[in-house]
Each structure stands twice: as structure tokens, then as C-alpha cells.
Amino acid sequence: MIKIIVDCFGGDHCPEAPVEGALASLAKNPDLSVILTGDESILRKCLEGKTYDASRLEIVDAPEVIGCDEKPTDVVRLKRNSSMMKGIIMLRDRDDIAAMVSTGSTGALVTGALVRLGRIPGVIRPAFCPLLPTMDGGIVGVCDSGANVEVTSAHLRQFAIMASLYLENVYGVKSPRVALLNVGKEAEKGDDMRRDAYRLLSETPSVNFVGNMESRDLLSGRYDVVVADGFSGNVLVKTTEGTALELLKKLKKDIFSRWIYKLGALLMSRMFKDMKAFMNYQNYGGSVLLGTSKVVVKGHGSSKAVAVEKCIEQAYRMEVSRLSGQIETEIGKYEHYEE
Amino acid sequence: MIKIIVDCFGGDHCPEAPVEGALASLAKNPDLSVILTGDESILRKCLEGKTYDASRLEIVDAPEVIGCDEKPTDVVRLKRNSSMMKGIIMLRDRDDIAAMVSTGSTGALVTGALVRLGRIPGVIRPAFCPLLPTMDGGIVGVCDSGANVEVTSAHLRQFAIMASLYLENVYGVKSPRVALLNVGKEAEKGDDMRRDAYRLLSETPSVNFVGNMESRDLLSGRYDVVVADGFSGNVLVKTTEGTALELLKKLKKDIFSRWIYKLGALLMSRMFKDMKAFMNYQNYGGSVLLGTSKVVVKGHGSSKAVAVEKCIEQAYRMEVSRLSGQIETEIGKYEHYEE
């Protein structure tokens, strides 16, 4: 039995989306059990009239609410009875729990995971690794996408190792092609840190390093993993999502501007529907936090039930593939850098 | 008469695209004259049979060729007879020349401009400011997009001042809304440099600072200028271009997968054509280098004649609006930081 905590308060569609996502996952995976954290009375009401295997669902009361503007460090220190912090502490303390899924504040989740949960031995910094769909039907992981705004080349090497293992073990990508995000393809591009990272990655047998990648090639399908500092990785992921969404919006607006376009779009409705699904990040799960001692998956704040379900599935697969142990082994092969 | 140098060797469509772009500009602007740099015999052949006002066109022989893999510093030092370096040196030495347009190597152009041309008094670092189309039909400038991979908050303040003046004077945007590229909206987001830049920008009356911008909002139309370090600014611009291009490619491929889609697309052909034009960076001119003592505009390496023409038009308008003098005045109002 694999037990996963679902933080039911924090996202835009709470608690309905996390609760429904959890129930859908329970129905699909007979060896999954979930712990819902949050205000118990609200959660009980939300579960009323729904069918599920009650022996695999637990509710842990955590009624404190995290405000939008609260500092992550304050949340970690002062909001121990919030759905997120109570979840993280339980994840740390209970051996029977494997993972946690949350759609709450990214900053609080990262800080909480670092301070309360700790890292896999040898890992300097945990890092986010969201997945994006590529134009050839594959996926590409970006690591880090925002957990660490400042990094060293040693961090980037670890991100490359962790993300490679993630793509290989959880998504079956054989020997993932790893690129370094840079402003040009040549080895000497970028700042000193980037040049040093290029060298380090080239010298790391655990990583199938294929060189620098310019950001315009992210969706080309030529890369499986892109490593970056959390600042530019964040820009890379959010710009891709933002541009796709804005273009879809424009397409829709243009179509509705003339009846002949509407007619044309009617003939193409199936295609547009597929395209929308293809570009919908909700279908690609959450952003896993690689390197924490137990599995943490961060769903988008706007996640609906289907997105939360994907996040739970990711957490489940990470646990089944024993990713943490593999990360520890592989990271251990290289000299340890001081933080 | 405004005289502009057009570097005719360096881009993918050389020398035809620069030559044709220059001739088109000449035809449109009676007070423009151009100097074409490059291999004179090839340029003469390229001009054969074409109609233009020969009194406003000069050819300067510069037959040396810059290789793809040459280091920018080597180009500046050793290739003084290349079309680009000869152009930069002439721009520096001749008072009658106002500007230069090039579609050649970005690195060589930046280095050449810095070393040979110099900066507007008070400017610490020149920076690129390409323009992107926003979804409400406007434009947004990103400064810097790659000239400086490492920056300080003082640089970012200058980028904000220069880009604001550029948008206001050359494109008529009144009191441009300036944002700082960051990983979140709150003032305390990002690293120390970003937090310091936030504070500095808030305290700069010459800049209409509206706060941090997350990269997903670039095309929203809510910002006129986005300031960023050259690394993440480069990621921002290239990811936007890359995502738009990949999605257009996918749209085309999907349309051709079924006859009913092809029929639908036929009804929408005008719309798709407009959309393609809207997303085509060739229609938005080049990336101007702000802060050099004379105007330098960098066109995309893949520029066709129409894109080169746009670049010449930008250089022309920058000169007419006396942007350099305004930058000097405005930058001079703030304490001078050491580089």
C-alpha cells in the first residue's frame, strides 16, 4: 500500500479539486491510500454523497489558513496547523507515508520541504522539474524551474543527474538527452558559471550531456532534460505556457470575429480540441521537487481535479520506481561540493 | 540628409536581403542615404539592373569575411576589413554618418560597438531592446535581451531609462509602463540584485515603474518595457519566438492531416495569413542597441529584405528623434555608478 498526502487547501479550486482528484486516484489504484489534510468539517461535507473505499482514505484536521501574502518562512514557523505544514511534518514523521501533493504556495512548499523534510543524502539543493509537451509528442523536463534563483555549476550537475533519473525511471525515457540552457550553442557562451557547468556536465558519465540549448528549441523534441538556474528556468517554463495560452486566446478571438471563420473552425473543431488538450499543462501533472528525502509534487495553483489526479499519479510512480534511492546512489558517485 | 551604413554580409540572405532592404528604404525616404559595406564587386553585381538614386548610395569595399566560429574579440581585432568592422569604424570616424544596421554576428557587433564605437556619456553598458507584438495590438520592448549576461541593479535602472525613452520617442508610447522581469509579482521576489533593482526603479522619477512581471504576462499588453539581465531577457524573447513558431508549425501539420481540416482552413485562410504576419518577428524590425554613442540596429540573422528595411527605418527614426541626446540628459540626472 502506498500512502500519499493530498493537501486540500491552497489552490484556486480548493477543496473540491484535490478531493475529487484524490477519489479518482483511489478508484484507479487499488494499492493507493490517501490522507487529506485541511479543515475536517469542510472536507467531510465535500465527501458527502461520494463513493469511495473509506478504508483507504484518512482525514487529518488542519484548519489553519495560509494567507496569500504570508512569507514562506513565517508559514513554516507559525502555521504548523495549516493543511500544507501539517502534511509536511506528517510526511517527515510517519514511515507509512510516501509522498505529498500540494497546489498551495510554491515558496512555502519549498521552504517547508527544505526546513522540515530535509534532503536526500548528498543532494545540495532540491529542484523543481516540471514537464512540457514537445512538438513530436514527447515530453521535456526543465530542472530547476524556480526552487533556487541562485545556483552554482555543482548544483546544475546535480539537477542534471536527478532529472535524468526521473525521466528514465518514471517516464521510461532511455538515456535522457540533457542540455544546458544558455544564450547560444557554443561551449564558451554565457557567464563563468555556465561555462563551468558545461565542462562539469561533459565530464559526468551519469549524464547524457548533449550541449547548450537556446530557449527557442525547448519544444523541438531534441532534448529530454534542460538544466537551468531557477530564475531563467522559471522564465523558460512560464514564457512557454504564457505564449501558448495567449496565442490560443488570440486564435479564439480571431475565429469569433467573422462568421466564415466560425464556419471554418466548426470543420476543425476536433483539431482545435486536441490542440487545446495538447497545450493544457493540467494534462502533464505537476512540478515534482527532486532531491527531498520524501516525494513532494507541486501542482499548479489553478489545478482542477484531473490535474491533481495526475500529480498523485506522478508521486505514486516516483515512489514505485524508488527514485530517491537511485538519486542517492548516483549523486554519491561524484565528489561532494559544499553548499 | 541622414546617412546609414548597411552591413551587407553576415546574415542568411546576404547580400541580397540587405541590398534590397536598403533600396526599398531609399525609395521611401528622400532624405535618407545609405552606405553599403562588403565585397564591392559582389555588391555591384547585386545592384545591376536595379533602379535607385545613385547619388544617395555609396559602396565601401570591405571584402574580408567573418567565419561562423570566430571569437568576437578576434573579429574586432583582426577583421578590420570585414563589412561589419569597417562599418563600425566608419560610423565612429565620420560625422556625416548617423547609424549602422547589421544582420551579422551578435557577439561581434556588441564587442565591436563597445570597443570601437564607445558609449553615450554616463551609460555603463549598452543593451539590446527588441520589440515583440502584444495581444492587444501593441508592442513590448525587452531590455536587455543578450548584450550583458551579468548585470547589477544600476545597469537595470539605466536599461529602464533608455528603453522608456526609446518607446516614447520612436514609437510614441506615452509614459511607458516599465516592469522588472522576476519569478513573482511581490517586491521581495528573486535574488538580492532583483530586490535592489525593484527599490531603485521605484525611486526613479524618469521611469514609470509598475512592479515585477512574471514571464507568462509578457504578451498581455499590460507592459511597454520589461527590464532584465541579458541572460533571462534572452530566454524570455527567444522562448516567446520559439513557442509561437513551434505552435504555428504544429497548426500547419495538424491542418494537413485531414481533408476536412484543410477545407476548414481554406475558409480561414485570411485569418491564418494575418496570424502568421502577426507572429513574424521580421515585421517588427531589429533589436536596437541602446546606449552606444551612435545608433546600431541588429537584425535577425534570418532577416529578409523587408526585415532589413524595418531595421533601417528604426535607425532612421532613432536618429530623427535625437534619442542619444535624450538618453544622455536623462541618465545624467542620476548618480553615476562605477562599472
Defining traits:
homodimer, 339 residues, alpha/beta, 7-stranded mixed β-sheet, 5-stranded mixed β-sheet
List segments of chain A where confidence is low: pLDDT < 50 over at least 5 consecutive residues. none
Distance between the termini of chain A: 36 Å
Question: Which geometry of chain A do the CA atoms define?
Answer: globular
The secondary-structure class of chain A comes to alpha/beta
Count the beta strands of chain A: 12
Number of H/I helices of chain A: 12
Into which percentage range does the β-strand content of chain A fall?
15-25%
Give the oligomeric state: homodimer
Strand ordering within the main sheet of chain A: 3-2-1-4-12-11-5
- How large is the radius of gyration of chain A? 21 Å
Describe the structure.
The structure is a homodimer of 339-residue chains. Chain A is of the alpha/beta class and 339 residues long. Chain A contains twelve helices and twelve strands. Chain A has helices at 16-28, 40-47, 72-78, 83-93, 106-117, 153-171, 192-202, 230-255, 259-267, 269-279, 305-320, 323-332, and strands at residues 2-7, 32-38, 57-61, 97-102, 127-129, 131-133, 139-143, 177-181, 208-213, 225-227, 287-290, 295-298. In chain A, strand 11 (287-290) and strand 12 (295-298) form a beta hairpin. In chain A, helix 4 (83-93) packs parallel to helix 5 (106-117). In chain A, 53% of the residues are buried.
